[in-house]
Amino acid sequence: MDQPRASRIWELDALRGVCILCVILIHLLFDLSYFLGVSIHANPVLLFIQQYGGVVFVLLSGLCATLGRRSFRRGLAVFGCGMLVTLVTLAMVPLGMADSSVVVRFGVLHLLGICMMLWPLLKKLPTWAMALVGAVMVVLGYWFAGLTVEAGWLFPLGLKSASFQSGDYWPLFPQLGWFLLGAVLGRTVYREKKTLLPRFPSEAAPVRFFRWCGRRSLWIYLIHQPLLYGLVAILQILS
């Protein structure tokens, strides 16, 4: 999730920071609704974040893949963090902390880890072919969303059985397609590997905060949900 320091482009860090803060907001609202039964009234901003925030995040990850190095090693670490999330959420079920619907079987860290590990192969594609493959994967992914299959092991591809559940679900179709389209943006819009907004006041305090969050997005993602769960548990006790 993080871009190597040597290739930092401030607006990408800031946008990643905004994205991770949006993730925290959505998870907080889910926790309040799931554990406390708080009715959350959707508004256009929240609906936009829920429907399109993930696409922006994956596009950004694909873009940053074109700027970094050691993609496979970083991807392996991110995928390992995803498996840690799976194990923690699995442990919550027998402990009576949640039901099986919260178990993260293939979440954003699983997805990004695999995308990063595949990048050394995918980057060999010419840009036009990468755009075509990405677009096809996006279309197939949204088609897969309306299908059910008997095989229970195809869920990483976006093909779900009728009984499939996952507390967080980011399948390779269409998300790997969005990742590739983000890489196309990296090869074209950011082909010079430098900021497009050199005159923007990037050292302003709010921007520095978003940049800070963006540089630490993986760690923020890993620790935010336990912190939110603890907060909601305290509220549950006090209510």
Give a description of the structure:
The chain has helices at residues 10-36, 44-65, 71-92, 108-122, 127-144, 172-188, 205-215, 217-238. With 239 residues, it is mainly alpha-helical. The chain has one domain. Helix 5 (127-144) runs antiparallel to helix 6. The mean pLDDT is 91.
What are the secondary-structure elements, in order, as H or E? Answer: HHHHHHHH
Residues in helix, %: 55-70%
Model regions low in confidence, pLDDT < 50 over at least 5 residues: none
- For this structure, the quaternary state is single chain
- Strand elements, count: 0
Distance between the termini: 37 Å
CA radius of gyration is 18 Å
- Content-based structural category: mainly alpha
The shape is globular
Structural domain count: 1
State the main characteristics:
0% strand, mainly alpha, 8 helices
In terms of topology, how is this protein built?
Blueprint: H1 10-36, H2 44-65, H3 71-92, H4 108-122, H5 127-144, H6 172-188, H7 205-215, H8 217-238
Helix pairs in contact: 1-2, 1-7, 1-8, 2-4, 2-6, 3-4, 4-6, 5-6
Briefly summarize what is shown:
The protein has eight helices and no strands. The chain is mainly alpha-helical and 239 residues long.
